[in-house]
Amino acid sequence: MRDGVRAALPLVPGPVLFGLSFGVFAETAGLSAVAAVVMSATTFAGAAQFAATSVLDDGGTAAAAILAAVLLNARYAGMSIAVASIFPGSRPRKLVESQLIVDESWALSGRSGSFEWPILFGAGLLLYVLWVASTAVGTLVGSTVADPKSLGLDAAFAALFLALAAPYVRGRKAVTASALAAVITLVLLPVAPPGVPFVAAAAACLLGLRT
Amino acid sequence: MTVWIVVVVVGLVSIVFKAAGPVFVGKRTLPPRVESVVALIGPVMLTALVVTQTVGGDQQIVLDARLPGVAAAAVAVWRGAPVVVAMLVAAFVTGLLRLVS
Fold first, then answer.
1. Which residues 6+ apart lie within 8 Å of A125 measured at CB?
2. d(CA A129, CA B19)
3. Do A70 and B33 touch (CB under 8 A)?
4. A29-87 pLDDT, tens digit each
5. What is the chain A residue with the closest CA to B76?
6. Cα–Cα distance list, B15 to A77, A81, A94, A100, A184 (Å)
């Protein structure tokens, strides 16, 4: 577990800044501070939380906001299946601890080539605490903080995922599948509803069927 | 009310998604072909995230200060920079471009 915390330390600024900006964003979008913190504590997935909140902010329906978040989070079903076998203990324990699966903890836990539970648990726990706490602080800071965009936070978030993706995009199959995913996303971005290009890109995983 | 419906439903669905593997699939091993599909989820979804975060807009492709920022971060990653450096590079370049434009 300590290894997991240590592995996640370089990432700390990411979730903290992202959590802060989610808190601020939720506040300006009309979520109460309590709603924002409850969302961070139960959903624990930045992109989905931002997507749902921005749909609400744009005046979208509850259904549209939910669909955007569910589509963005569908990847967690696949990711959790990928790490299913490393979780120890009873089902209730697995139910609780599986909530620590988040892009960063998942990516870190697999960087040695096979998934390691102590890394996932340690990294996930640290990221969870930071995420919920920084969301709370963000709602307090509210509108007094400068526009997170002017600080380049959106680009920093893209860079975070780029850095996390890099170790995985090795080998011809992974490179081809990633390139295909990028193309699918780019083609669908202008035409499909928010969240859909992202989910459609998952089809690129089917390249794995070719042996 | 709408807000709370969204918060609760999204929370519950996320909990089920994350528990899907450990709670419902368990230690059963997946067939090799499925394994090989699952192995691609990481690179594929992270790549899609990078694309949507870099050029995604309101149902359109938006080329703005994010792109040079992320490109600079890509160079940093390629040169072996740690994650936090890549993020700072992106934030710095993008923030600076927004400041001067």
1. A1, A4, A5, A100
2. 19
3. no
4. 788 999 999 999 999 998 789 878 877 877 778 887 888 788 778 778 888 988 888 89
5. A163
6. 10, 13, 11, 10, 28
Shortest CA gap B63–chain A (Å) = 12
Q: How far apart are CA A80 and CA A50, in angstroms?
A: 21
How crowded is residue A89: how many other Cβ atoms within 10 Å of its Cβ? 10
Q: Which residue in B1, B2, B10 has the most chain A C-beta atoms within 10 A of its own C-beta, making it the best mutation to test that interface?
A: B10
Which residues 35-74 of B are in CB contact (within 8 Å) with A? Answer: 36-61, 65-66, 69-70, 73-74
Q: Mind telling me how many Å the CA of B71 is from chain A's nearest CA?
A: 9
- Distance separating alpha carbons of residues A62 and A55, to the nearest angstrom: 8
pLDDT in tens, A171-203: 899 999 999 999 999 999 898 876 677 778 888
Q: Which two tokens stand for residue A45?
A: 């997935």
Q: Which two tokens stand for residue B99?
A: 């400041």
* pLDDT above 90 as % of chain A: 33
CA gap A161, A55 in Å, rounded? 23
- pTM beyond cutoff 0.80: no
Tell me which residue of A78, A84, A74, A198 sits closest to B40, measured CA to CA. Answer: A78
